[in-house]
Amino acid sequence: MAKMVGMNVVVKQGWTKKAVALLEENLTEEQYKAALNEHLSFEIDSAINLRKAREILMRVWYRDTEGVEKLQAEGRALAMKYPDQLTAINWCMTALVFPAFADIAKLMGKMFGFQDVITTTQIKQKMFDEWGETGTLQTVVAKIVGTMREIGGITSEKTGRQEAASIQVNNEEVVSFMLRVAVTLDGSNYYAFSSLTEFPFLFPFKYRVTKEQLMQDERFTLSTFDATLCVALKQRVCLAGGRGMEYTMRLTAAPFEKLRNGLKVIELRLYDEKRKRIKTGDTILFISLKDPSDTLLTRVTDIYTFASFEDLYRALPLQDLGYSAEEVAAASPKDMEEFYSPEEQAQYGVVGFRLDLIPQENAAQG
User: Fold this and answer.
1) Which of 129, 135, 243, 350 is the most buried (most CB within 10 A)?
2) Are 202 and 177 a contacting pair, CB within 8 Å?
3) Number of folded domains in the chain?
4) Exposed/middle/buried for 195, CB within 10 Å: 0-12, 13-18, 19+?
């Protein structure tokens, strides 16, 4: 899947402050562009680099990106209202527009969970694995890491070695914005309340979320699955991109037949890098291991993420996972250890994909 890279210069935080200040002047796009050109010309000699920096700033702070217009408008208003919170707001606003920034932030957040220092070389290699190795991406990784440093999300005492910053965010409006951006970028529909402070994307920020805060915020909904409090956005924000992607998975005979007959509507997997790419609206083609010519096409309608299958089994209806009424009493999350070890679950987390079966005659229509 081709992704837009776009960030090909290091954007200084001082430039961002100017871009935000200009918003208060209610300028037309041409006036805003001219004002940025004037400001940037004092620091950038190259006309090409000036244009690149200006376009990044305009895309983040002035122009709308399809699918996230409301979040962008809110971010701009918050940046003007709370200039002291610009680091967190800028981090989120940049990620909404530039997928590479968001992906690198998520990657670094996961890596910082295991190590204190990350090298630029490590980041590049991981991104090459995800996006494919290109000369453009190699340059962009360095520019994005530099921009993250300018924003204040990371520090680098030595060249090429990054450490996570630790920034406290106490403003509830900003925390709400951060959460909704993180949920939008992550793509799942429901989150355990306890996981809301653990988004890898938000690794530089320390913040607190309370049930009362979410209950008073009409943009969130809270529900309880078994004993687990879950949180969702009341209105899902869909990123631009048209028709969903199609993925392929293999299934043994018994769960394959249950899926075919409607006796199983949630497929469980490890929430590794491959599964994190799957979003609601995407299709999954299941191939029977017994007969590879036998396939089922499904559409993902909901995504549930948990730290472990133990948490998942407590939260989701067991019959939706494929257990019969007679089997429910003996059902155990340890059943999944046949496929995924406790160590793998601890490393990646787990996911349940709720599926709608697409009739074969409709499959070609998507």
Assistant:
1) 350
2) no
3) 3
4) middle
Rounded Cα distance, 148 and 201, in Å: 12
Residue 88 belongs to a domain = yes
CA distances from 105 to 1, 140, 149 (A): 19, 13, 12
Q: How many CB atoms lie within 10 A of CB 356?
A: 12
Alpha carbon distance 240, 188 (integer Å): 16
Name 92's Cβ contacts closer than 8 Å, sequence gap at least 6.
75, 177, 178, 181, 182
**Of 288, 232, 267, 293, nearest to 352 (Cα)?**
267
Please choose, from the candidates 279, 211, 205, 271, the residue with its C-alpha nearest in 3D space to the C-alpha of residue 239. Answer: 279
121 and 144 share one domain: yes
Residues 312 and 225 placed together within one structural domain of the fold:
no
Residue 220 belongs to what domain range? Answer: 167-233
Mean pLDDT by 10 residues, the chain (366 residues): 62 96 93 96 94 94 87 95 97 92 92 92 82 68 93 91 96 97 84 91 96 93 82 68 65 92 93 85 85 85 90 92 92 90 90 85 43
The reply to whether 310 and 359 lie within a common domain is yes
The verdict on residue 47 lying in a domain is: yes
The strand ranges marked E within 234-366 are 246-251, 266-270, 283-288, 295-306, 350-357
Distance, CA of 285 to chain centre:
23
The Cα–Cα gap between 88 and 101 comes to 14
Which H or E run includes 163?
strand 161-164
